[in-house]
Write a structure and sequence with these properties.
Layout lengths: L6 E4 L9 H15 L6 H7 L4 H8 L6 H14 L10 H10 L3 E6 L3 H8 L1 H4 L4 E4 L6 H12 L6 E5 L2 H9 L3 E5 L6 H5 L5 E3 L2 H17 L1
Parallel strand pairs: 1-2, 1-4, 2-3, 4-5, 5-6
Length: about 220
């Protein structure tokens, strides 16, 4: 991606926050409550290579139940936010991008209150726009709303996430998408969806996004 980037829209869980261990613990009580398949850790590892829709099919989770599961899951996460860590390097990433003059946003199915709690006051203050409470397959609308609120041209926006549905949503919204390899989906699963960029480490986001922004801005 050669164009200057002015706005970076991050997914939260699996991209900035290391919530995988929490999600694994949460699967069984959610499965018992909402009557879908409770998977083992081996199955969870296998599902990392599947698309979001394939995962739902494997779990036997119909689309109409997803909002119910998501709402209950958000309540569970809010109660345990203190136990969910950020990935190592998240703070440095957000500080570096902000210092480079980029505007930051978070679009997530999680709640803004929980996200702010996990980020902490300093990092939360670096985020210019929050588009929270997105439906599992409803991120495209949140992307569009954030871009409109920011007043940034679409070709200067990069969405960054860790799941195939993040790539789908960015494409639906007409935005470029970066996929991170340290989250839920495997590199192969993400690459099959053809993201604009792929990142194997947070330092790569700083070097490729922040640095290029400064270089273009200096011309």
């Amino acid at each position: 991606m050669d164009a200057q980037i002015d706005l970076v829209i991050f997914d939260f869980d699996g991209t900035l926050a290391d919530s995988t261990a929490w999600a694994i613990r949460a699967v069984r009580p959610l499965a018992e409550r909402f009557k879908f398949k409770a998977v083992t850790e081996d199955e969870i590892a296998m599902l990392r290579g599947r698309t979001s829709r394939e995962i739902m099919a494997y779990l036997g989770l119909p689309l109409w139940k997803v909002p119910l599961v998501a709402a209950h899951g958000k309540k569970m996460m809010a109660a345990e936010a203190h136990a969910i860590p950020l990935f190592s390097g998240t703070g440095d990433l957000l500080r570096a991008l902000s210092a480079a003059g980029l505007r930051l946003a978070i679009v997530s199915s999680n709640s803004e209150t929980t996200i702010r709690s996990i980020l902490g006051a300093e990092l939360a203050s670096l985020v210019d726009h929050y588009g929270c409470g997105a439906a599992i397959f409803g991120k495209a609308a949140k992307f569009k709303a954030v871009v409109k609120a920011a007043g940034v041209p679409k070709d200067r926006v990069l969405c960054i996430g860790d799941e195939t549905r993040d790539i789908e949503a960015a494409r639906e919204a007409g935005l470029a998408c970066g996929a991170v390899e340290w989250g839920y989906a495997t590199r192969t699963a993400l690459a099959d969806y053809g993201p604009t960029m792929m990142f194997s480490a947070m330092d790569e986001i700083i070097s490729r996004v922040a640095a290029s922004n400064q270089q273009v801005g200096a011309d």
